[in-house]
Design brief:
Chain lengths: 205, 215
């Protein structure tokens, strides 16, 4: 249990998808103009990550990695299908996003309209594929750890995008030099937020 | 019924190559492909390899999708694009693992993340689906080159100021270190990449007033 909490806190603050690895920056920069759309997108990302990472964990362990196919027959012990992981993970992610899109359209049409094109763009959000690839690289011990990692990464992304949206709403009335307005100042502020988050690095639970 | 065949390197075609280098740079203007631009720029060598990989994937995917553009039904075009890109990336990944193993380890998941690199999808949707193969090839080359230029600039500053080397070769002489100069450890850390790109955007927009956002 303590291990799970450890992984969760680590993926929210220390291994934050945006500030430590820069995954999901494109939609992060494009959607963070208002807090409302950012909250909506952030929650969608938590959902998608929370589902795709465990599913990809199962696929990786029982289908793709070296020796995974032994449950079919012992002669498959040295079959290594991990080169297929990119295509299969993307397929899972694309279908999950389609599902989330249908759910949001049904339960909150206003959110659906305000997110617009960015909802289907979650499918190519590097944070989602990155989550699965990190899970694959780190070799978690069981599905609980993988799920907690997925949810934690989603929550970390959510915190980052809501934070920058709140700041962007405020600095709209500040004296930003013209060439920096909009994109430039957002980059610099995100960098400063990243430095702040690095303060969490030494925490041991 | 035959239209005038445009020369291979007409000025319109050359524009496809040169515009993304500055005026419509994918990273600083179109805001695409940011993720990998920040993560792999700690040193110049991995940044260069990454840029090269993106050039290869983009050029080939653009040509393939452009050749298929009349036969793909609109409903499944995203899936077709993803499959083409993923296949190319798997190829590039295997080649990197075979010939440049230590750089491949440094790039780790970011080679796989070329699949979700918004530049590739973005240009496929915006250009390759409605243009001829040669133009799509040039467009892919130009945008990937624009992406690569920013990558190398950021990596250059981060490596120079952060470790005193460029491409692994020591550039700052010992005498400067003895004088009291220290490598700026902050440059190696991820957040500085964001600030360096912010500075690049500042310089670019100060020189080119048209790109300034009015809000």
């Amino acid at each position: 249990m303590e291990n799970l909490v450890n992984i969760f806190v680590k993926s929210v603050f220390i291994d934050n998808m945006i500030f430590a690895y820069f995954l999901g920056m494109c939609s992060y920069l494009a959607v963070s103009k208002t807090v409302k759309t950012s909250t909506g997108l952030g929650i969608a990302v938590i959902f998608v990550l929370g589902f795709t990472v465990p599913v990809d964990y199962l696929i990786h362990n029982y289908l793709l990695k070296e020796g995974a196919l032994v449950w079919i027959s012992d002669s498959f012990a040295d079959v290594d299908l991990s080169f297929l992981s990119f295509i299969i993970f993307i397929a899972i992610i694309a279908s999950m996003v389609q599902l989330v899109e249908m759910i949001i359209e049904k339960f909150s049409p206003t959110l659906y309209n305000s997110l617009g094109i960015f909802l289907p763009l979650i499918a190519v959000n590097c944070a989602i594929l990155g989550g699965s690839l990190f899970m694959q690289e780190r070799e978690y011990n069981n599905i609980a750890e993988a799920t907690v990692f997925g949810l934690g990464s989603g929550v970390g992304w959510f915190l980052a995008i809501v934070g920058i949206a709140a700041i962007r709403e405020k600095i709209r009335y500040s004296n930003v030099p013209d060439p920096l307005k909009g994109l430039g100042i957002t980059f610099i502020i995100t960098g400063l937020m990243g430095i702040a988050f690095m303060g969490f690095m030494g925490i041991k639970l | 019924m035959s239209a005038e065949k445009e020369p291979l390197f007409s000025s319109k075609n050359i524009k496809l190559l040169t515009e993304p280098l500055n005026d419509s740079n994918p990273i600083t203007v179109q805001v695409l492909g940011i993720c990998s631009a920040l993560a792999v720029t700690v040193k110049v060598k991995p940044a260069f390899v990454m840029a090269l990989s993106v050039v290869v994937v983009m050029a080939v995917s653009n040509v393939v999708i452009s050749l298929l553009r009349k036969t793909v039904p609109p409903r499944i075009r995203i899936i077709v694009q993803l499959v083409v890109i993923a296949a190319m990336v798997i190829l590039v990944d295997q080649v990197l693992k075979a010939f440049l193993f230590d750089i491949s380890k440094q790039l780790s998941v970011f080679v796989g993340l070329i699949i979700t690199n918004c530049i590739i999808m973005g240009r496929l949707e915006a250009f390759a689906l409605s243009n001829k193969p040669w133009q799509s090839f040039l467009d892919g080359l130009g945008n990937a080159a624009g992406y690569g230029v920013i990558l190398i600039i950021v990596a250059f500053f981060r490596e120079l100021l952060g470790s005193g080397t460029v491409w692994g070769y020591k550039v700052i002489p010992e005498s400067v270190y003895d004088f009291g100069y220290e490598n700026n450890g902050l440059m190696i850390l991820p957040p500085m990449a964001l600030i360096v790109v912010g500075a690049i955007i500042w310089v670019q927009r100060a020189r080119n007033k048209k790109l300034v956002e009015s809000n």
